[in-house]
Amino acid sequence: MSPIAIEADSPPQSRTFMRRFAGAPLPWIMPVIVVIGIFYLYPVIDVFRLSFTNATLIGENQQYTFGSIANALSSPQLPDILWATLIFVGGSVIGQQILGLAVAVTVIRGEKRGLFGTTILRTTALVAWVVPGIAGGIIWQMLFSEAPYGALNSILRLMHMPTVAWLSDPAMAPWSTLISNIWRGTAFSMVVMYAALKSIDPSLYEAAEVDGATASQQFFFVTLPQLRAAILVNMILITIQTVNTFDAIITLTGGGPGRATEVISLYVFNIVFRNYDLSGGSVLSVLMLIISLGLAFVYASFLPKEEEQ
Amino acid sequence: MKSATVSALALSTILFSASAIFAQELATKDRIGTADAAKTLVVRLTNDSPNNSDPAIAEGYQKLFVDFIKKHPDWKMQMQFMSSDIGTEQAKMLEQAKAGNAPDCAAVDSFVLSQFMVNKVLADFTPYFSKEEVDDLFPFIRSGITDKDQTIRAWWWDTDLRVLYRNKSIVADAPQTWDDLKKAAIASTKEGMEGVLFNGGRWEGTTFDWLANYWALGGKLVDDSGKPVFGEGENKEKFLKALNYFKDLVDSGAAPKRVTTIANYDDMNAAAAAATTALFIGGNWQYAQLKSTLDEEEFKNWTFSPIPGPTADQKSTGTGGWTIASFSKDKEKIEMCANLARDVYMGPANALQQQLPTRKSLFDKYEVFSTEANKTFANALVDGQARPGVPIYPEISNQIQIMMGDVLSGTKKPEEALDAAFSAAMEAYKRL
């Protein structure tokens, strides 16, 4: 039944009520505002509030103080945690971006030439994306296992190459966690890049060909500039996703050896659920929010303006 | 019209019968007892329940629960199950208990019981257990469940302990001392083994397994008030000695460097099954797992002995286990929860899962505990030591896990790592 029909069927009083709010959006979006407010905004506000307290999971006397902020930010562990996070997030952004673009370009080219297997390639990449983080962690744990029967080291042994201390060497472990995260996130980048590549006007390539541009010149002077917005949006999304990732790391290394792979999200988890320190965890959650927002604004400032588009 | 009336009657009869049958079903995935029972007990359990992944154990528990509820026909139990991330589950439950939303009856890990006690969220179990039952408990169990005012706050129904497993065909004699273990492990590497395996990754098992060595020296983690003391005075010396012992095992090649990645007892089972190790430190429950994993001939080679100490006379082993406690304020629910602990868990569940009972007399009552292996485990409980029941323990454990990774991987020197761990634990203690 159309809205007009509903109005026609409604009694006059109800019709007056609906007309009164016809031009006012607020009553119509109020249910959404209430739901978002209760389930999204309230927890965020509560995290901000808790960061100004000394709240713990045990202890009764909650008081408002700046002490928790000072304690959390002056913690001697924080620089190491931030460094591990920087490697993990920075490496993931670069790795996922490059590999996602490479897979997307391969798939597009394959489709254009009608090659067999492009759909299989696209689907295979997507499988990694739908695997839950914890399952992904377990898969990579088996691959990186340094036991005599560990998968990757067994392959290296077959090839008469030296084995690698994938997870037990504090210098190597961050790179191993990075590889597993890039594997997982590449498909997402591929989807974004694939959609962006599809939307590039083919006449641009035709004009480039007429001008005698080589394939690499077409890529650097047509494809990449056209993908600028998609690349920046993708960077924002990968950054936010990776800053919040901890499920794959907790399964793969638990943050170890020592603190070698303890990124900020895992650190917050440990502070709240091992140390029962709600206020400390809240301060660091706010810090995570600031880092994510800050980086998002930096990326967004490079987005092409409307007139450029 | 007539046929429509007949159809409607038939349909309503079918629907009524279906709901009646459903109401009479005593066990569903999330309910034990009839759906129309007047009283409800919300119960949250681990896999020590009908939710166990082993079908035989799950079925055994289901039978125990159904038999129990038949004795209490007015009641139904609404079942909730925890994930395997126990630390997080227990922390969440503590938060719920403080907010008054915890289940009526739940499994509480013995090593975090004190956190619940400090917050005064546990009901009083004292009236529901006899003096004989309480006196029959092992001393460390009794003190673990008793509050400062001598009130019983939970019922600790099973315990476990750590031992040294060895393949007799490679390591014939049980190592008695730290030196013996190092020599045996190095000798095993000459026969193509990895050496001795133990937990060294970021999880509770790393701290718990290593603590046996520190306790064997007489070291203490906290003082009587619950303040960390492991980084001061004599305790610091003992701590460094036990830490250097593990470092030496790795540096000498008696243990592989990969121990810093072991964060699961299953890794040790896997190594035993793959015949790549002849020695590992594990839990008593792994004996049954080895039996089911290895073929009969191979299993005959495996045995266990107490964890070696610095000398043959200085021995210790970590003991853990689970309790049942009530968060309810309703006396009927508290009593029902205590009944569940007594009738299902205190004995029958121990026998079902072959998990060590916490009462001496139960070792004689159930035949499964009369095996040579279980008798040896029971005797080893004499050296058993529980983790300190203080609120700061989880953070001390977290710091020891970090320290162990740093030391065994060579990132930090033992004393430097210990000082960092102690300083972080003290900082956390001040905030609690």
Automatic annotation (TrEMBL), chain A:
Which positions, given as ranges, span the membrane? 21-42, 81-108, 120-143, 283-302
The reply on keyword Cytoplasm is no
Report the residue ranges that make up the ABC transmembrane type-1 domain in this protein.
82-299
Membrane topology value: Multi-pass membrane protein
Protein's GO biological process: transmembrane transport
Q: Where in the cell is it found?
A: Cell membrane
Q: Which InterPro entries match?
A: MetI-like, MetI-like_sf
What this protein is called in its record is Sugar ABC transporter permease
Q: What organism does the UniProt record list as the source? A: Rhizobium chutanense
The taxonomy runs: Bacteria, Pseudomonadati, Pseudomonadota, Alphaproteobacteria, Hyphomicrobiales
TrEMBL record, chain B:
Extract the PANTHER family matched here. ABC TRANSPORTER PERIPLASMIC-BINDING PROTEIN YCJN-RELATED (PTHR43649:SF34), ARABINOSE-BINDING PROTEIN-RELATED (PTHR43649)
Q: What is this protein called?
A: ABC transporter substrate-binding protein
* Keywords tagged on the record: Signal, Transport
State the taxonomy lineage.
Bacteria, Pseudomonadati, Pseudomonadota, Alphaproteobacteria, Hyphomicrobiales
Tell me the InterPro entries matching this sequence.
Bact_solute-bd_prot1
Signal peptide location in the record? 1-23
Which family does the similarity line name? Belongs to the bacterial solute-binding protein 1 family.
Superkingdom, taxonomy of origin: Bacteria
SUPFAM superfamilies named among the record's database cross-references: Periplasmic binding protein-like II
